[in-house]
Amino acid sequence: xxxxxxxxxxxxxxxxxxxxxxxxxxxxxxxxxxxxxxxxxxxxxxxxxxxxxxxxxxxxxxxxxxxxxxxxxxxxxxxxxxxxxxxxxxxxxxxxxxxxxxxxxxxxxxxxxxxxxxxxxxxxxxxxxxxxxxxxxxxxxxxxxxxxxxxxxxxxxxxxxxxxxxxxxxxxxxxxxxxxxxxxxxxxxxxxxxxxxxxxxxxxxxxxxxxxxxxxxxxxxxxxxxxxxxxxxxxxxxxxxxxxxxxxxxxxxxxxxxxxxxxxxxxxxxxxxxxxxxxxxxxxxxxxxxxxxxxxxxxxxxxxxxxxxxxxxxxxxxxxxxxxxxxxxxxxxxxxxxxxxxxxxxxxxxxxxxxxxxxxxxxxxxxxxxxxxxxxxxxxxxxxxxxxxxxxxxxxxxxxxxxxxxxxxxxxxxxxxxxxxxxxxxxxxxxxxxxxxxxxxxxxxxxxxxxxxxxxxxxxxxxxxxxxxxxxxxxxxxxxxxxxxxxxxxxxxxxxxxxxxxxxxxxxxxxxxxxxxxxxxxxxxxxxxxxxxxxxxxxxxxxxxxxxxxxxxxxxxxxxxxxxxxxxxxxxxxxxxxxxxxxxxxxxxxx
Length: 591
Prior knowledge:
- By secondary structure, this protein is an alpha+beta fold.
- The protein is built from 16 helices and 26 strands.
- The strands form five sheets. A nine-stranded antiparallel beta sheet has the order 14-15-10-7-6-5-4-3-22, with no helix packed on it.
- The longest helix is centred in the first third of the chain and has 22 residues, at 151-172.
């Protein structure tokens, strides 16, 4: 952030600026996204995003007014996913809409009652929108609002929740953490508040949270692709990792990778509000892969309504990043319902569009116990209700989901995954995703599987027999129907070896011992020369030293640092430092 922009922020001035005030490359990317929505291909009716983009450009105002009235006359739908687009339109209006269109917009917040939702992003969208609309229409009684509360009561409730969310996130991490899809909703919510909140403290808090959220993504991306582990990801994008909202943000914010065509609507609403361009230190963190590094994060589970004494459990993440590939994991377990992605290998490719540049395994867990832990709906509609929207949840061949019977241990670019599935469990097998884009896949008589992804050599050692199942569209699913199971994975750069055969010989020379009874246990000396010891249900060890989960940082690594409960974040690159202190609402830069 420039000195001028920081002075604006402290004075409560808008964070955004007209195109031409930022770096030319960033402004060109911003304009291309806005133009794509303001001038959509085809001749269909305008949607909310199209109207908002045209208002930003001050174009086709009569058409915008007419289209908005038609949309509202048809009846709002979508709850908080209706609230955030209509809020943007209200703030972008600035006298451009007709009086009747503006009145229809105001009436909609009296006659339509949006559902608050049941996830973290739902609540943040809901309260961000309610906060801004209550701010826009102050002094009105409860009869003018769908909530039955006055403008001041709505504003106070919304502000209280937003502030509590920032406090919890900066103390214990996000619950809906590191989602390559839903990250866009957190970014746009903070963009809205940083630009449109009138209260200086709320505006400043949101602007600081933009740095916080962007840093969270910047340290775990590989040329714009968000590497695992994720709290939530969808079926197709977990395989074709480029096909995520994160790709749009990586391209717009940092010029990384390639955006979707057209970019997802989440990025347009981020840009129509603050259009915040990250500072130089975040650009360096997002793009510097000159040296390998390990990055640590602590997050929290989603709210657990049953079967646990604590509302949230800790999530311990490890991510190892090189410019050729990344390996990332959490500790395993059912940490999020339905869409969890617990570990993967991701390799870099020149053009990721249509490429499945990842490898991982999972237990395809499906259970009413999981759903009753994280949801409050009646048991008799649990699985059927979930499958109506998340269709793969109850599928034995799915590639998305966490399991309480999966435990994971990562040290740099080595991973051990263990399974101990109780008899009678639904879908008592493990699935392994082996991409169509892996090259030279070989099965060695030793039990190791070798493959190459981009410039990454990958070695996998299943602990039990397996067979291959075809995947529609290409690739193979490793299927292993054994309750006590596991896999050892070692990744290395092509540049570290003179050839594939040399890598293979190095893997075969490594010490590997394992047994499956009474529970799976592995002792593995990795290519890094470090001995990993892991027994299911016990704390993993490196060189005989147990992992210190009790001292795991909120963020730790060469670029981002934060202690649990500190409400502080330190960004680091070279001698540059930026310190965010959310208790004092201060931001300090060291050039």
